[in-house]
Write a structure and sequence with these properties.
Elements: E1 3-13, E2 24-25, H1 32-42, E3 48-57, E4 63-71, H2 77-84, H3 95-98, E5 99-120, H4 130-143, E6 160-163, E7 178-189, E8 197-206, E9 209-211, E10 217-218
Parallel strand pairs: 2-5
Antiparallel strand pairs: 1-5, 1-6, 3-5, 3-9, 4-5, 7-8, 8-10
């Protein structure tokens, strides 16, 4: 099992708590699914899947409040089907009428190190193998390449990254402390496409590290 260590940072981040229905409120730290999304944006292949092992928190957890304009509506699937069947209907959203201002509590000055490995999946091809995937991922990480701009929870908050080589050292901000961050989103369960459900885990920050090895995941 080959792994990578990736340093990730950005000015702002928003890892939205699903229990907050109106105003957006971020988790205290990056979620495993958001960390996986960053790695997927750098290198993704149907024959592999990234697994997050550890998350290191290098900067203090700091929040700030912002207000931004959001569109409150979405195009109705029923209207789309009606138009496709020759009936009248709207296939657009009038952002002038549907826009509204919402407050968000977001993180600022975030800085993490993500340690992860990948597993082979059923989508692997005949010529694909672990060494090939690892070499491609390492090359893209070293060159700073990505398929689409990595983000910190939302597209408007870009994530910057670089590969941490084996001989590099880093220090977490919460060294010597243990914090219980409560239940956090782990990932989404896509086993049943008709019933996609969230998975959660109890996040404990020990010495500035969230260890995801054999963590208990619940629905």
């Amino acid at each position: 099992m080959k792994g990578v260590s990736v340093e990730v940072w950005g000015d702002y981040a928003l890892f939205t708590r699903p229990e907050m229905k109106v105003e957006r409120v971020s988790y205290d730290v990056i979620t495993p699914s958001a960390a996986r999304g960053i790695l997927d944006s750098i290198y993704w292949h149907p024959g592999m899947r990234w697994r997050i092992d550890k998350i290191f928190v290098l900067n203090p957890i700091e929040f700030t409040n912002i207000r931004r304009n959001e569109v409150k509506s979405k195009i109705s699937a029923t209207n789309v089907r009606s138009v496709m069947n020759g009936k009248e209907g709207d296939l657009y959203i009038n952002t002038t009428a549907d826009i509204q201002q919402r407050a968000s509590m977001i993180l600022k000055n975030v800085h993490y190190v993500i340690q992860a490995h990948f597993e082979m999946t059923e989508g692997v091809g005949e010529r694909d193998n672990e060494n090939k995937f690892f070499a491609i991922a390492m090359r893209r990480l070293r060159k700073g390449q990505y398929y689409h701009q990595p983000c910190l929870g939302c597209r408007e908050f870009p994530a910057y990254f670089r590969l941490i080589e084996d001989d590099e050292e880093f220090k977490t901000y919460y060294d010597g402390l243990e914090l219980d961050l409560g239940y956090m989103l782990y990932d989404m369960d896509f086993k049943d496409p008709e019933n996609i459900s969230p998975l959660f885990f109890r996040a404990r920050l020990k010495n500035g590290v969230i260890d995801l090895h054999d963590c208990e995941v619940v629905q």
